[in-house]
Amino acid sequence: MLIEKLLLHVLIILAPVLIQASLLENNKLGKSPVFIGILHGFAAFMCMIFAYESFGLYWDFRYIPLVLSMLYGGRKAGLIVLLFILSARVINGGDAIVFGFISAFLAGILPFLIANRFWTYAPKKRVSFAVLLGFWPALVMLAILLSYSLISGIPVSGNQEMGIYVLAFGGIQVLGVGIAAQLNEWMLEKQLLREEILKSEKLNTLGELAASIAHEVRNPLTVVKGFLQLMKKQASGSQQEYLTIVLTELGRAEEIINDYLNFAKPEFEKIEQINVKDVLSDVTLLLNAYALKEGVSLEEEVKEDGYLHTDRNKLKQAFVNIIKNAIEATPPQGKVKVSLNRTNNQSVIIVQDTGKGMTREELGRLGTLFYTTKDRGTGLGTSVSIRIIEAMGGSVHYASEVNKGTIVTITLPLNREQLKQVDEDIQDAM
Ligand code: ADP
Ligand code: MG
User: Which of 121, 185, 255, 265 is the residue whose CA sits 20 to 30 A from 324?
Assistant: First the structure.
């Protein structure tokens, strides 16, 4: 049976993909075009040795490895497979050898031309592309078959058996290319994921190292700052001026280190019962002067109490960073509105500005360490705020539109005990 044989061939052509998959993880061999070429070439060779002979032609799937190796291994791999196919054709012999050569070259030419463009497509598109390309050798085979039949005098019209062969052959060929391409993509994705995990592990260790260094640097910095402050008191004239600059820059360095440490490991020093409403009022009061200087109006709409059990200063810092960013993004005459609401068990803080907004790409990068678009920015503020809020069990969500503004939604889970108390109070009042 032709079909049984062809299914066997599908197994033969999937073998190199699987072998490649198992090798890709631990050495470079799996990526070498020569190796891929030899693997697929051998598969094509086997297909042809076990070919099904009928109507004076060999029916097999030699072109699937050819297409796959051209696409996934590059032109070099594809040419190696072509060599395998040609030599197998010579070994097989027969009178249709010229047709075999012509069809091999024809089937290889299209994937050869497209091979370099292939990798510019997204993975899903690559699979559909490979399937489409799977039709090409099938078409070539059909054309060759028809012309061979014409020349050798085998009747084509009314030859039902041949029609079924062509259909089955073409169908399984396209299916085979599709399955193999999908397998290839899965294995590439798995490999990428593995690399990504290794990278993030490395980054994690680096981050911990950096945090401990930052911690060690902070102490001498504090000492230096203390002595400089003493010196400044005694200094006069230009020396005092210089010391002022030195001290502000030192303060900035300290701020960056503190921010970084907060990001690396937000430590809550003093945990107490706090009301989000009070913290927000403190922060807006603090930032009002800054907003005024920038010509931005800062509005506050606080409706509800929200009791939390956490570190007041850390929460303050989180709010300051986010609201300061909103003010900085907003042009003069613009508006920044901060509001506080309560849902069943959450405090919802919304910071809305009428500033420059962010593109999708910028939104995606927000929250990565050291990402900034400002000349003197540190790119730490947002990351630190998100880390602090998340450490409190809350979440931060950004929505933004370019030239329209940004809406930051912060949710914080309220204290359970306190919630009960508040609810009871409400019930008592009713
Ligand atoms: P920095 O403020 O030091 O630049 P941040 O981490 O606080 O660092 O912010 C990173 C970047 O995110 C900013 O440089 C800015 O481009 C963008 N950004 C943050 N908040 C807003 C906002 N409300 N509107 C527009 N852009 C913002
Ligand atoms: Mg900032």
Answer: 265
